[in-house]
User: Which sequence fits this backbone?
């Protein structure tokens, strides 16, 4: 005769086995209702009380003053280059160059960014981390690509023919009075189509985003693992005063 404890165990196992053999349910239809999130939707006090301390902490961090801009940096104050574009390209160069030297032992030659990727100006006044999120709201990283001289020439021609002031740093482009290419200097030396150049940009552009034709093919890509937004905020932290202006990096002769 079975021991009562063993008997009970067998009964439990049998019941569990029977339950597992029951026919499984199958999803046949999904229904949903769109809810408008606006002022008519009342908040839940208990949830709001839970969120408030975290919300306050995030806003304190975002709005703490990191630097000061005595003058607004704009995206429409120049035809071929702008103060805001120059500021962003120059800071990317400054923040990325040490990474390139450390990781691959190479010199960064220049930086190029698309105009559409810069989503805000920098207004006169206190500068905070929130400004970094406004300028670069995307989760884009800095990539460094190795381009042949031929690829760089194609990139330069794209910049000269574009109707938008794309941002770059480390390079000077001069057009003649008719708009034809007059000269190009990279790091103070004439452009040499026989060599390769290391160029910092957004991983979004390298992957083909925006279809701007910058990088159809590249010889190699260095992922810096450095968010563009973080580079902006780190730069703010290092500078007491934020300044930039329209300059001679891209001009057309009269």
Assistant:
């Amino acid at each position: 005769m079975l021991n009562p404890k063993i008997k009970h165990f067998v009964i439990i196992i049998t019941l569990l086995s029977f339950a597992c053999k029951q026919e499984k349910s199958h999803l046949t239809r999904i229904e949903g209702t769109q809810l408008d999130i606006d002022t008519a939707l009342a908040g839940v006090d208990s949830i709001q009380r839970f969120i408030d301390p975290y919300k306050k902490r995030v806003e304190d961090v975002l709005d703490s003053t990191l630097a000061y801009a005595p003058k607004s940096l704009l995206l429409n104050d120049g035809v071929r280059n702008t103060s805001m574009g120059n500021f962003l390209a120059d800071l990317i160069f400054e923040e990325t160059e040490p990474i390139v030297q450390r990781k691959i032992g190479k010199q960064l030659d220049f930086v190029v960014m698309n105009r559409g990727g810069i989503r805000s100006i920098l207004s006169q006044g206190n500068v905070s981390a929130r400004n970094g999120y406004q300028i670069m709201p995307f989760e884009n990283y800095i990539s460094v690509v190795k381009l042949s001289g031929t690829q760089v020439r194609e990139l330069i021609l794209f910049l000269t023919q574009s109707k938008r002031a794309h941002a770059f740093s480390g390079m000077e482009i001069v057009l003649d009075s008719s708009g034809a290419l007059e000269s190009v200097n990279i790091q103070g030396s004439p452009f040499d189509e026989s060599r390769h150049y290391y160029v910092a940009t957004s991983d979004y552009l390298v992957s083909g985003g925006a279809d701007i034709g910058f990088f159809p093919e590249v010889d190699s890509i260095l992922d810096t693992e450095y968010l563009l937004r973080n580079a902006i905020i780190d730069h703010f932290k290092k500078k007491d005063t934020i300044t930039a202006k329209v300059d001679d990096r891209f001009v057309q002769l009269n």
Summary: The first strand starts at residue 65 and ends at 69. The chain has seven helices and eleven strands. Residues 172 and 182 are 11 Å apart (CA to CA). The mean pLDDT is 89.
